[in-house]
Amino acid sequence: MAENNDEILNVIGDMSFLPEEAKDENLGRSFPKLRTNEKYVRLGWGGLLLAGVITYLVFLFIYGTKGYYFSSSPNGNYGLLGVIVTALMVIAFCASHAYGYLYDTKLSLLDDKKKVGFYHSIQTSLYYLAFLLFYVAIFTTVLRPYVFQTMFSADGAFVQSLGTITLVIMTILSICGIILSFVKPNISKIYNCVILALGLWVVVFFSSIFSHAHSYSVSSNYAIMLFIFGAVFADLALPFYLLQKKTGFRSVFHMLLSVSLVFDSLAILVYGMATLG
């Protein structure tokens, strides 16, 4: 009896009857683990995005390859190259978004921090690939050399080559973003913020060319508005990227970024409709 009493006193003394302090499962992570409901929302959003991409591609190829929306007529419409690059752009972004879901729900949970860092660099690289393809699509469609040569025919070779020069700059920026994601992750985050905040406004900067060349077209004005929405939603995604350690912010960032691309993709399509002639 005395021994039992001693055991009870010992248990009370070391408080061993209390549960062990819960370990913070998000310690050391750049964002919290996704909750079950959040996973379902992300998965559903990804499904909608995939359905939208498939619909977009069908619409693009059915009408684009027949020359109805993207004919290669002398007035400088997009042509087959613009259609193909635009298709590659939306496919690349859909793939990067899908990989982002895989990383957030599975790959980021691995115990091997080096592997997690490597997988995160792949995710960042995929987004930069989509960003690069976006600008290749832009400069084979909306800002193709024909536009600059037509609008600045009397302003010299430099101005006529402005679209190509801008594409080269965007290519270099994208490659730098991919390299930094692997070799300098800390600097990469700052770099990503700058690109996210300003990258899509380059197209909006050239909106005066759109409006001047097609001021008569209601569709071209809608396209400009869609490009502006795309840039605005990219900027709206930035605070959620910076504050992704808060629950749910990581998912909001991905969703806002995808909305941004939806607007930009629609703008390319609508602007193609505006250039019929």
Blueprint of the fold:
Elements: H1 2-14, H2 36-64, H3 79-105, H4 113-138, H5 145-151, H6 157-160, H7 162-183, H8 185-198, H9 201-205, H10 207-213, H11 218-242, H12 249-274
Number of helices: 12
Mean pLDDT: 82
**Strand content range:** under 5%
Cα-based radius of gyration, to the nearest Å: 25 Å
* Helix/strand/pairing category: mainly alpha
Q: In angstroms, what separates the terminal alpha carbons?
A: 101 Å
Summarize the structure in short.
This protein has 277 residues and is an all-alpha fold. About 2% of the residues have low confidence.
Structural summary, described in words:
With 277 residues, the protein is an all-alpha fold. The protein has helices at residues 2-14, 36-64, 79-105, 113-138, 145-151, 157-160, 162-183, 185-198, 201-205, 207-213, 218-242, 249-274. It is globular, with a radius of gyration of 25 Å. Residues 72-76 have low confidence and may be disordered.
